[in-house]
Amino acid sequence: MDFLKNFGALVNTKRTALGYTQEMLAEKADTCLRHVANVEAGNCDLRLSLVLRLAACLDIDLNELKQYASCDQNGNYTKDLLK
User: Fold this and answer.
1) What is the pTM of this model?
2) Strands, E assignment, the chain
3) Among 12, 14, 52, 75, which has the minimal tally of Cβ within 10 Å of its Cβ?
4) In which residue ranges of the chain is pLDDT below 70?
């Protein structure tokens, strides 16, 4: 699975654990409901600003995101993380 799918699953899991609806998360992250739904489904490219806002709203440690990114043999992250 790629970063977008994994990040979407993480957002969904954290959102559900906190008892937020997608609409509540969208409001907290200053985005629209459709965007949150697409993020959770892994169906959209993400801007770093949105990743940071969602992480802040859901108390996701940015170091936790490393496990969802692919690295090459030299430890460089693949382009999936940079979309």
Assistant:
1) 0.79
2) none
3) 75
4) 1, 68-83
